[in-house]
Amino acid sequence: MEYRPLGRTGVRVSPLCLAAMMFGPWGNNDHADATRIIHRALDAGINFIDTADVYSGGVSEEIVGQALGSRRDDVFLATKFFMPMNQDDPNQRGGSRRWIMRAVEDSLRRLNADYIDLYQVHRPSPDTDVEETLGALTDLVRQGKVRYIGSSSYSGSQIVEAQWASRDSNLERFVTEQPPYSILVRGIEEDILPTTQRHGMGTLTYSPLAGGWLSGRWRKDSASRPTSSARPSARFDMTKPANQRKLDIVEELAQVAQWAGVTPIELAIAFVINHPGVTSAIVGPRTMEQLESYLPAADLTLSTDILDRIDQLVAPAVTVNPDDNSYGTHELTAHARRRTQP
Hints:
Blueprint: E1 4-5, E2 12-13, E3 16-19, H1 31-43, E4 48-50, H2 59-68, E5 76-81, H3 97-111, E6 116-121, H4 130-143, E7 146-152, H5 156-169, E8 174-178, H6 192-198, E9 202-205, H7 241-260, H8 264-273, E10 280-283, H9 288-294, H10 304-313
Parallel strand pairs: 3-4, 3-10, 4-5, 5-6, 6-7, 7-8, 8-9, 9-10
Antiparallel strand pairs: 1-2
Helix pairs in contact: 1-2, 2-3, 7-10
């Protein structure tokens, strides 16, 4: 597996990053099986693991910490904070100094680690000064509890604001951004990817299979395809024309994959990591079988003909269903559009 530079940090990471979101009650609650999956990923050359405190209420971090054991220093370990950890306490969440200082200690304990390689803000906060968040994270870096800091699901303007705040206030800067990216969700090509490249950041993209749409699990004539009753969110509501269009594209992509001699999963992941602005694609297996289906993509290079065909199906910078975007949405509030609040 060929390792890639993580922005301008000097660190090199694998093109596939193992996401631990599915380890624990949210997915695979068999700790022994999850451990085997983690070990298999490490043995295959993956040296990058990403989790978050909120995944299964902290259980994901515990599984990762137990699984790594003596191999901890061989792994670039990333986790995230921000999401609510206690629904009854409004201060056990967000990007405040008060919460960050507690959240990092909780994550270190669950991960059974002395330090976190990459500590990321899971989402931007419109009501918290970015200097507040960066100041607390800077202190953690200086204390040795965190090596690098990053953002997740930030808009282009928020990435730039954070970079400028770091420069102007002499604070640690975000060295990575973690946005959604797939053949069906290409919005970041217009703004996010050029911005991260301009600022020398690593880009760690999540959902390369677009929430299962590109895995081959759902096809146009399949009885198992998502329905509005089974998956009521707008991303899976089959009454929406955009989702019907996604099914049409999936059929076409299956033919492209066959022509290329790869599986639809390999095509989807390879498309993501073949972008020069992408450092790693974050893949989140629930089973060993799923992990094995992801691994071949790490060494695939897609030809110009294949990439051109994909561009014909989904144009660059286009997200087929805008509901699939999970970044920057707070900047399009009713107030921002000069409309009265409901």
